[in-house]
Specification:
By secondary structure, the chain is mainly alpha-helical. The protein is built from six helices and three strands, in the order βββαααααα. The protein has a three-stranded parallel β-sheet, with helices on one face.
């Protein structure tokens, strides 16, 4: 296997093990902890799209495995899904900052703040900012990341 020192994402076959700390797209796998799962007969175009999506922080799974709608991912997968910026945004929400204050503190646009908040709500399965913070604090208790 090639070195993954500079890889954003790795592609593995169902029997392979990749433990270099990068997200993995697995062909024919069934491990829901993987960032990407594709059937063995995936086309080159599907593989390319999956690799790009996972590198961008998204989760890819076969249609038959997909939950209806945008439900929360299993608890054990959340740490792999939250980007460092999303954790920063969640932390600022936990400290009571509004969107404009978050944008100023993180030196990002208001639109970007809203994008990150929507992403956090979806990934955490939360319906409000307060619920997202509560779920984030529960994750923190599990020492997955610091708020």
């Amino acid at each position: 296997m090639a070195s993954t020192d500079f890889a954003d994402v790795a592609l593995a076959d169902r029997g392979q093990s990749v433990s270099h700390g990068v997200p993995i797209v697995t062909l024919g796998g069934a491990d829901i902890d993987q960032a990407g799962l594709l059937p063995l007969d995936a086309t080159p175009e599907q593989i390319d799209a999956a690799l790009r999506a996972v590198a961008a922080g998204l989760v890819v799974c076969p249609i038959e495995d997909a939950a209806a709608g945008f439900d929360a991912m299993p608890e054990r997968s959340l740490q792999n899904l939250l980007t460092p910026r999303e954790i920063e945004v969640l932390s600022t929400i936990a400290h009571g900052l509004g969107n404009k204050a978050i944008a100023r503190r993180l030196n990002i646009s208001l639109h970007t703040v809203k994008f990150h908040i929507e992403s956090l709500l979806r990934k955490l399965g939360a319906h409000s900012r307060a619920e997202a913070v509560a779920k984030g604090l529960a994750l923190r208790r599990d020492q997955m990341f610091e708020l």
